[in-house]
Design brief:
336 residues, alpha/beta, Rossmann fold, 6-stranded parallel beta sheet, 11 strands, 15% strand, globular
Length: 336
């Protein structure tokens, strides 16, 4: 009888994309895996072998606690279900429930259960989850793969000169200025690229004016349709957000704007080749002032962004032509 595992992820898109690394590696090692997350389930046809379910409510907790041999929980101190799951799971079978912290700071060592799965801020989120698979779970097969499989009707990078521009994010403080996105897009348009802005439904009205400059506005009915569009594009340029992680997992090179190099090391997309554009480390970021964090947008110029794109274009050839490229021969022979 196959062992069963439950993975509980944060509900952001990037969190779901990355946490499926845990699900996929357990699957490749013979586990039956259920993933609980409220966003990526709408892309289920991209990973049909990894069932994703929305977060259950608290009334389902007794059933959940009696259904699995292993629980991997990305720490979430705001969701009541996760808080209760961790508390009761640790009381009943502490060896079967592991808590993963993905927000390292000088103070996180004080967090309860941090010793379950240490986080290395010098490694990307996906690579940290690989460390969990290797050093904590001791899985024989470990690959940097989250199980994404493109529908057969799609052609990877069918439109190599098309650039998807994602100029928004979950937090306004993460967003590079609109006027600089537009200037960057104008420069790239002169080079022969087709640029399509994908601002998100709530912010679309604020970006509709870019049509007058000859740019497209992408509007998609669901995440599956958006993923298909990105998969057939050449690049994605955007803020530090989940869409960059999705593009990277689809093997699309990404250019990401981020306020600090330390954050970029861990949170920049890392499945496919990407370039994170950050302010110069010469700009002071002393605690109490945090000038680099507060004014980072001013210190990432359009010229700096163009240099980043040129670097991305030069280095991205190593991404390969298929999201299958992340598999080891052993993984292919055993599970896929």
């Amino acid at each position: 009888m196959r062992q069963r595992a439950a993975i509980f992820c944060h509900n952001g898109l990037g969190d779901g994309v990355n946490c499926l690394v845990l699900s996929q590696n357990l699957f490749l090692n013979g586990w039956e895996v259920d993933t609980y997350q409220n966003t990526v389930g709408s892309m289920q046809n991209w990973f049909p072998h990894l069932p994703v379910q929305p977060y259950p409510n608290l009334t389902a907790l007794p059933s959940i606690l009696s259904s699995y041999d292993l629980y991997l929980v990305v720490q979430n101190d705001t969701d009541p279900f996760v808080k209760t799951l961790i508390r009761e799971g640790k009381e009943r079978f502490p060896e079967r429930i592991k808590v993963v912290y993905l927000y390292p700071s000088p103070h996180i060592m004080k967090e309860l259960y941090y010793e379950d799965c240490f986080t290395d801020p010098e490694q990307s989120v996906a690579d940290n989850l690989l460390i969990v698979c290797d050093k904590v779970l001791h899985l024989p097969i470990v690959v940097k793969d989250n199980g994404f499989r493109a529908p057969v009707s799609l052609i990877h990078q069918k439109y190599p000169k098309r650039i998807v521009v994602h100029p928004t994010s979950a937090r306004v403080t993460r967003n590079w200025p609109k006027e600089r996105f537009v200037k960057l897009a104008l420069h790239l348009k002169k080079r022969g690229y087709e640029l399509v802005f994908v601002p998100g439904t709530k912010e679309e009205a604020e970006w509709v004016d870019v049509k007058e400059l000859g740019f497209g506005i992408g509007s998609f009915s669901n995440l599956d349709a958006l993923a298909s569009f990105i998969y057939e594009s050449g690049y994605l340029i955007g803020n530090d957000s989940g869409l960059g992680h999705l593009a990277s997992a689809l093997n699309i090179p990404t250019l990401t704007f981020c306020r600090r190099k330390a954050l970029a090391k861990m949170w920049a997309p890392s499945f496919c080749h990407g370039v994170a554009v950050t302010p110069s480390s010469w700009i002071p970021n002393i605690r109490g002032l945090r000038l680099r964090d507060r004014y980072w947008r001013k210190w990432i110029s359009v010229k700096r962004a163009l240099r980043g794109f040129d670097q991305l274009k030069m280095e991205a050839a190593g991404c390969g032509a298929s999201i299958y490229s992340f598999h080891s021969k052993m993984a292919q022979e055993n599970r896929i």
